[in-house]
């Protein structure tokens, strides 16, 4: 899928100071991403604090985002969980207008076997009218989707077109690249390793730091795709420290603070159990931003 090449961003969900959804800031953020060259947008991934949104709020955000994007860039919806039949029901009733694919996280907390993970995605693929991006993030789910399972799913279901890999294992990335179908895409799920993953053959990144610096992330992905790794290293090094700081106290607390400091969103409010970044981390981020 050419629509998933290059730089995508997992959009934050801006909130007002009272905890309600700040749709005005969300609209500004979407325009900012498109104007700064982001290739595609992901609505309601982990960075969107999806776990703390009600079903009605999720529908409102998906609908608003689709209407505001209005076909200007490809749009992916994050729709996953650990209750397979519930996800299948959501997929069956999802309004696909304006969306080109679904990003679905591997089941968390239950700690299924590899066969359980395979059967989970098989059920979703059978129900979905849209292509599916697998999402492997063991640090959050408590289980790892093996390269063999990823390749099995990619081979068995045309509907499964890509994987967002955030395992951090280059042995795993290499095995997927070696064994996958030719048109199946490997996408980086971690900003700091986008450059080496794209050097290995990954199609691009679904970024967190891109919420604050979309042009730099888009440029990094474009340079990597062109094989200009000398220029890409400069962009990589420029973003590295701020990206690291974003994850010191959990995502998206850090990037929301950066976005507030840059005037991209009005508030860095996050919903419990997350809390805003500590004064010490604020100071470290402010010092890095001045550079």
UniProtKB/TrEMBL annotation:
Sequence intervals crossing the membrane: none
Residues in the active site?
Answer: 135 (proton donor/acceptor), 164 (schiff-base intermediate with substrate)
Annotated pathway: Amino-acid biosynthesis; L-lysine biosynthesis via DAP pathway; (S)-tetrahydrodipicolinate from L-aspartate: step 3/4
UniProt KW keywords: Amino-acid biosynthesis, Cytoplasm, Diaminopimelate biosynthesis, Lyase, Lysine biosynthesis, Schiff base
Q: Where is this site: Part of a proton relay during catalysis?
A: 46, 109
Pfam families assigned to the protein according to its UniProt record, in alphabetical order = DHDPS (PF00701)
Q: Which residues bind pyruvate?
A: 47, 206
Per the UniProt entry, the Enzyme Commission number(s) are: 4.3.3.7
Against CDD domains, the record matches this protein to: DHDPS (cd00950)
Write down the top EC class of this protein.
lyase
Q: Where in the cell is it found?
A: Cytoplasm
> What's the main place this protein lives?
cytoplasm
Q: Which reaction does it catalyse?
A: L-aspartate 4-semialdehyde + pyruvate = (2S,4S)-4-hydroxy-2,3,4,5-tetrahydrodipicolinate + H2O + H(+)
User: By its UniProt entry, which PANTHER family does this protein fall under?
Assistant: 4-HYDROXY-2-OXOGLUTARATE ALDOLASE, MITOCHONDRIAL (PTHR12128:SF66), DIHYDRODIPICOLINATE SYNTHASE (PTHR12128)
Q: What does this protein do?
A: Catalyzes the condensation of (S)-aspartate-beta-semialdehyde [(S)-ASA] and pyruvate to 4-hydroxy-tetrahydrodipicolinate (HTPA).
| Subunit record text | Homotetramer; dimer of dimers.
Q: Which family does it belong to?
A: Belongs to the DapA family.
Protein name as annotated? 4-hydroxy-tetrahydrodipicolinate synthase
Q: What organism is recorded for this protein?
A: Sphingobacterium griseoflavum
């Amino acid at each position: 899928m050419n629509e998933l090449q290059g730089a995508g961003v997992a959009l934050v969900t801006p909130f007002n100071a009272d905890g309600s959804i700040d749709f005005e800031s969300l609209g500004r953020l979407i325009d900012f991403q498109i104007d700064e060259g982001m290739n595609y947008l992901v609505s309601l991934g982990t960075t969107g604090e999806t776990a703390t949104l009600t079903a009605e709020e999720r529908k409102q955000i998906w609908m608003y985002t689709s209407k505001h994007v209005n076909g200007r860039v490809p749009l992916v919806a994050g729709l996953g969980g650990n209750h397979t039949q519930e996800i299948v029901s959501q997929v069956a009733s999802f309004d696909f207008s304006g969306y080109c694919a679904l990003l679905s996280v591997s089941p968390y907390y239950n700690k299924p076997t590899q066969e359980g993970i395979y059967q989970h995605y098989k059920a979703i693929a059978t129900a979905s009218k849209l292509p599916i991006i697998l999402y492997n993030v063991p640090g959050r789910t408590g289980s790892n989707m093996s390269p063999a399972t990823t390749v099995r799913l990619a081979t068995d279901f045309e509907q499964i077109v890509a994987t967002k890999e955030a395992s951090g294992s280059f042995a795993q990335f290499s095995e997927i690249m070696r064994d996958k179908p030719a048109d199946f895409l490997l996408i980086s799920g971690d900003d700091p390793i986008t450059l080496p993953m794209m050097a290995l053959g990954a199609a691009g990144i679904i970024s967190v730091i891109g919420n604050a610096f979309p042009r730099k992330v888009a440029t990094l992905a474009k340079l990597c795709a062109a094989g200009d790794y000398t220029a890409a290293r400069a962009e990589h090094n420029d973003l590295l420290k701020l990206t690291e700081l974003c994850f010191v106290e959990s995502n998206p607390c850090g990037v929301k603070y950066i976005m507030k400091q840059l005037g991209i969103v009005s508030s860095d409010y996050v919903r419990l159990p997350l809390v805003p970044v500590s004064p010490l981390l604020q100071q470290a981020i402010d010092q890095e931003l001045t550079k």
